[in-house]
Amino acid sequence: MKKVFFLNFKFLLIVVLALLLVFVPGCKVKDGSDQNGNGNGDDGGDNGNGTKTTKWDLWSAGETKLRGVNIYQRRVYPELDGNVFMGSGTIGPPHKQADFDDLSALGANYVNISHAGIYSEKSPYKLDSDVLGNLTAVIEKIGKADMFAVISFRTGPGRSEFTFFWGEDGDWFDASYYNDRLWKETGAQDAYVNMWKKAAEEFAGSPYVVGYDLMVEPNSNEVWLDAWDPEEFYDDYGGTLYDWNQLFLRITTAIREVDRETPILIGGMAYSMVDWLPYVVPSADEKTVYMVHQYAPFAYTHQETGDNIKYPGTFDADYDGDKEQVDKNWLRNLLSIVDDFKATHSVPVSCNEYGLVRWAPGADTFMDHSMELFEDRGMNYALWVWDPDYEPLTGENNAFNFRFGSDPDNINDVANDLLDVIKKYWQKNEARPSNTEFE
Q1: 126 and 25, same structural domain?
Q2: C-alpha distances out from residue 239 to 104, 150, 242, Å
Q3: What is the residue range of 7's domain?
């Protein structure tokens, strides 16, 4: 009798629980739906229409979904870096799990991984398993911290890290470290295409990787041509190997052979400056996001300590010899280029690099205006830069480390107005891997 009673009781309990799930208002089931089967947007894999979320939805929703940072990881050159400054591995600086946990705790939900390419930079071009292993480990740490990731390749076949230090040879490196053959050699471009196809094969199924940024700041216009007028550049070099438009189409085709779902991100020439965006020719790919890097006005965002260029303020913002009033309206006018591009092509645009030196007077106001204008346009955005807790690097290279405050001499985390502004916007984040299920 006791056994029968126990089975009946268990049956009744199951029935009661089932009725509660059906009739109790607001009761949620495991997939994030309410009692009527309707999803709750960012709180689960269901987007409110009875279907699961896609990675594309994070970029195309018309509202900001991803707010976060860039991390910077490049090849280590022991003869230049030693074995401490950038770490002793193939790629540096080293990032620990705690670095990403701390970032997530501040509210960020997205990391743009500005990373060395996974193929060798010199011929014969081939997979570098150490670089791929580092990238894989970083993505896992980002996912474990409940954030999404975008893979952005800084380098690759025919392109070395020193393209970002153009004109600085003779200081801490010599000119032999330059390698920009990518813009002159078909073989290098073929290998760059193959590198991305391999990367897509590796990460297509990742629940954390939500974008492939095909090249960080294409710049053939500077390194080979010193051409800064976009109209003249495309009149003279459109369709040639110097033209990023033709190369990213080839990369897109190769990626879509192995991964049809992960969004592709494309910035323009001239380091993806806003005013070169109109010269990007959109592809036929329906899951491509177009990007800008927004550091204008450079005289303000990259000023040296003691320059005392203020925001809002009046100064020569475009190096034409005349002073301009630089304020929120100035920034809004600049971003009207983004508005026009979106309206013309019906495509989403993001900003996966922006920022300023932490000691710039009015940095908190500049940041507040920038982030608000991105939000107004429904743009995802990633701040430069999140440095790891690694003193050999941050003790010397910390100009963009917003956790250190406005005192150039301080090299420790400190409460500050710039950080407060950033956190204010990051608190809007809702989508995370833990509450998002992709189709």
Answers
A1: no
A2: 42, 28, 8
A3: 1-53
Residue showing tokens 């420790």: 412
Q: For 94-120, what is the mean pLDDT?
A: 99
**379 in helix, strand or coil?**
coil
**169 has pLDDT over 50:** yes
Flag whether pLDDT at 155 surpasses 60: yes
What's the pLDDT score for residue 146?
98
In a domain, 436, yes or no: no
Sign of CA dihedral 326, 331, 332, 335: positive
Question: Are 42 and 67 in the same domain?
Answer: no
**48 shares a domain with 133:** no
| pLDDT above 90 as % of the chain | 88
Contacts of 369 (CB under 8 A, 6+ apart): 327, 328, 331
Check whether residue 131 and residue 44 sit in a common domain. Answer: no
Alpha-carbon distances, residue 166 vs 73, 106, 222 (angstroms): 18, 34, 9
26 and 63 share one domain: no
* CATH value at residue 382: 3.20.20.80
Distance CA 249, CA 316 (A): 37
439 found inside a domain: no
Going by C-alpha positions, the residue among 88, 75, 84, 58 that lies closest to residue 148 is 58
Is the same domain home to 247 and 130? yes
Which carries the bigger pLDDT value, residue 11 or residue 96? 96
- Residue 319 shares a structural domain with residue 368: yes
Q: Is 378 left (phi over 0), alpha (psi -120 to 50) or beta?
A: left
HEC letters along 162-224: HHHHCCCCCCCCCHHHCCCHHHCCHHHHHHHHHHHHHHHHHHCCCCCEEEEECCCCCCHHHHC
Split into its structural domains, the chain has a count of: 2
H-helix segments, 86-144: 97-106, 129-144
Q: Which residue has the higher pLDDT, 406 or 34?
A: 406
What is the structure's pLDDT at 52?
81
Beta-carbon neighbour count of residue 346 at 10 Å? Answer: 7
Q: Which residue has the tokens 């982030």?
A: 371
Measure the CA–CA gap between 348 and 332, rounded to whole angstroms.
18
Return d(Cα 154, Cα 137) in angstroms, integer: 18
Distance between CA 266 and CA 349 in Å, rounded?
A: 9
For residues 201 and 130, membership in a common domain is answered with yes
Domain assignment present for residue 172? The answer is yes
